[in-house]
Amino acid sequence: MLSLTSLWIPFTLIAAAGQVARNAMQRSLTAKLGTWGATNIRFLFGFPFSLLFLAAVLLSSGDHLPWPPAAFWPWLLLGALTQILGTGLMLLAMTDRSFVVTTAYLKTEAIQTAIFGFVFLGDPLSVTKLVAIGIATLGVVVTALRPGGETRFAAWKPTIIGLVAAASFALSAVGFRGAIIAVEGVSFVTAASYTLVCGLFVQTLILSVYLLARAPEVLRGILALWRPSMLAGF
């Protein structure tokens, strides 16, 4: 039986599988909805499920609905806005011929998360972590320099898209973690669930208003494709 501190293992496996499935669904909708339309389905159709999950957590834990301090909101906005940017850049990369190279740079997300966590949250960087960062960096370079990829490695577009997307996702992780830490008086599961609901609400609001102003036909297309979008949101 897993202890509480070991729950990160099944949660990570579930999250990784869900992320791959969601990315594939979003990619399949990019041609019909465009980059930002496909980005919005992740938030718009994920929001209702986050409400249900928060309700289940509150009922099972007995926690009250938290009322976070002012420090919560800057962290939340950092996480929400950078995740929008990272998702849009990732979907843009998926339509590019240099997707393999871009993906290699996307994998620097974990490295950048460790660095940003140290800078913004004071997370310690031990010798072991520094060695791991060095190995991961070397792995990214080797992946980008795969046979037949030497000429593409020098291309600025996939490099910039990959690194900026990875930095965006890394800042997003740090922002959401900072927001979760700011929520006090409840369990970490409730704090995380509440942060998820608030983050998805902000992201849905921002992208929906943007699409309504710039491309209302995309919003109509999203509603018309609600079945696959709902699955991606889940």
How would you describe what is shown here?
By secondary structure, this protein is an all-alpha fold. The chain has one domain (32-61, 71-233). It has eleven helices and no strands. The longest helix is centred in the N-terminal third of the chain and has 37 residues, at 8-44.
The main pleated sheet reads as:
none
Structural class: mainly alpha
Number of helices: 11
Number of domains: 1
Work out the number of β strands.
0
| CA(first)-CA(last) distance | 28 Å
pLDDT below 50 for ≥5 consecutive residues: which ranges? 149-154
The rough form would be described as globular
Helix-strand sequence: HHHHHHHHHHH
Strand content: under 5%
Mean pLDDT equals 85
Oligomeric composition of the shown chains: single chain
Tell me roughly what share of residues is in helical segments: over 70%
Backbone CA Rg: 19 Å
How would you sum up this structure in a few lines?
With 234 residues, the protein is mostly helical.
Strands, helices and their partners?
Blueprint: H1 8-44, H2 47-61, H3 72-94, H4 99-106, H5 109-121, H6 127-144, H7 150-153, H8 156-182, H9 188-214, H10 216-224, H11 226-233
